[in-house]
Amino acid sequence: MNVLEELKKFREMDIPYSRVLSSMCTVSHEIAIKAHQLFINTNLGDPGIFPGTVELEKRLIEMIGELLHCKTPFGYICSGGTEANIQGIRSARNIKTKNKPNIVIPKTAHFSFEKICDILRIEVRRADVDESYKVEVGEVESLIDENTVAIVGIAGTTELGQIDPIVELSKLAEEKDIPLHIDAAFGGLVIPFMDKPYPFDFINKGVTSITIDPHKMGMATIPAGGIVFRDEKFLKSLEVETPYLTSRMQFTLTGTRPGTGVASAYAVLRALGFSGMREIVKQCLKNTKILVEEMSQLGFEPVIKPVMNVVAFRSENAEDLKSELYRRRWVISTIRNPKAMRFVIMPHVTEEVIKYFISELKEVMK
Ligand SMILES: *Cc1c(COP(=O)(O)O)cnc(C)c1O
């Protein structure tokens, strides 16, 4: 058998995005795929060989900086939100130099922080959230001590799409002189394109770094994550010497790294512009509303009124429904507290997909 035929057979075992209602990734934009192909042999780990790709990354970071209200952003395109969060916290730890460092994060933080506390050997303190699943600023304050090297706020929680009170967290961070890292892996490319965007970014003086992933709502090809710092000293604190490459120092976590994420993310933002992104986000929010209406007719209530295109519906038998749907090749996810079915309404989750899904859910519920 031809090897490509063999590969196709494996690929056909995968579930197509048109049946996936739980992923924060989506079908890459067609311009992203073209850009990806153009840059397929690039390696930003050896920048002297790829000055063009390096320049493109610089321009993309500037574009992201503009979106995040930062005139002189310092950062790079990495493997995803996990690496971006690691680097954000690692830089804060390096700058603050404490013997027994700790960080204070919301209980709703992404599981990448489990890896961070393991890799960086720092204590992770989890602050409670209020009834709307936003972190309690008073709780955060009470968990801070002289060894706290960073506070984390989330702009678009993975489970519910909620936004923490970042304005207040920023004031607290400034007052205590502690770096504030914002995990906007998902929300970073949603919130700025909403009608009344919550001020989650560098507009707040206390915010020192932001995670923002083009391979989620940015419709770039995987992998494309982003980490942006307000101040160069954070990036510098990550540097190691590189004895045999074309560069002298490297601040990235990975060595060899693709230019494809840079090119595809840049292509989407340039081709669509901020106005095109606004249209995409508008459509996703409209479809989220449609899902909420359809689900409420079936008796399901959202855990919180959706803030963005992430929504969870309370259901005692969420797990059973998920399993039965998966048997029929539909992918949704669940959350445990409270028990709920979770959906992410990405650009591929169209009104047609939602209607089809709802008809199948009705079957399953019989
Ligand atoms: C998706 C996500 C991450 C992790 O990003 P990866 O690209 O999967 O590494 C981190 N934080 C939040 C809030 C996310 O939604």
How would you explain this protein's 3D organization?
- The protein has a 7-stranded mixed beta sheet with strand order 1-7-6-5-4-2-3, sandwiched between helices.
- The mean pLDDT is 97.
- The chain is of the alpha/beta class and 366 residues long.
- Helix 5 links the parallel strand 2 and strand 3 (123-127).
- The chain is built from 11 helices and 12 strands.
- Helix 2 (30-38) runs antiparallel to helix 9, helix 3 (51-67) packs parallel to helix 9 (260-297) and helix 4 (81-96) packs parallel to helix 5 (112-120).
- Pyridoxal-5'-phosphate binds at residues 24, 80-82, 85, 110, 112, 154, 158, 183, 185-186, 213, 225.
How would a crystallographer describe the biggest sheet? Answer: 7 strands, mixed
**Through-space gap between termini:** 44 Å
Poorly predicted residue ranges: none
- How many domains in all? 2
Q: What is the CATH first-level class name of the largest domain? A: Alpha Beta
- What pattern of helices and strands is seen along the backbone? HHHEHEHEHEHEEEHEEHEHEEH
